[in-house]
């Protein structure tokens, strides 16, 4: 039993046998497939955006923690240098890799 013309594989010849109704049905199938593809793409993009926003939030929190540690470390170094200071200003170099966790 032969399948209806609108169910032919794309590579099969003789599209001359297709009627206007068959072409309209194919067009509807293509439009449906395109719409589903766009919906999937949109869903995946929204999921990716949500994930990136969550990641951004975590990085902002980590930044605040690290800024607090740097601030504490700087204050400690400044206070230590004040005790050793005798009218001479010193520059302080901070190695951020040596900040305790």
From TrEMBL:
PROSITE patterns: K_BOX. One of its GO terms (molecular function) is DNA-binding transcription factor activity. It holds the Pfam family K-box. Residues 81-101 are annotated as: Disordered. One of its GO terms (cellular component) is nucleus. Residues 1-76 form the K-box domain. This is K-box domain-containing protein. It comes from Salvia splendens (Scarlet sage).
């Amino acid at each position: 039993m032969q399948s209806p013309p609108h169910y032919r594989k794309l590579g099969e010849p003789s599209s001359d046998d297709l009627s206007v109704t068959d072409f309209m049905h194919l067009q509807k199938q293509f439009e449906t497939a395109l719409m589903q593809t766009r919906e999937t793409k949109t869903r995946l993009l929204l999921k990716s955006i949500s994930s990136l926003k969550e990641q951004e939030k975590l990085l902002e929190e980590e930044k605040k923690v690290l800024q607090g540690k740097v601030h504490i470390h700087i204050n400690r170094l400044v206070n230590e240098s004040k005790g050793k200071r005798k009218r001479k200003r010193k520059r302080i170099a901070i190695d951020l890799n040596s900040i305790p966790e």
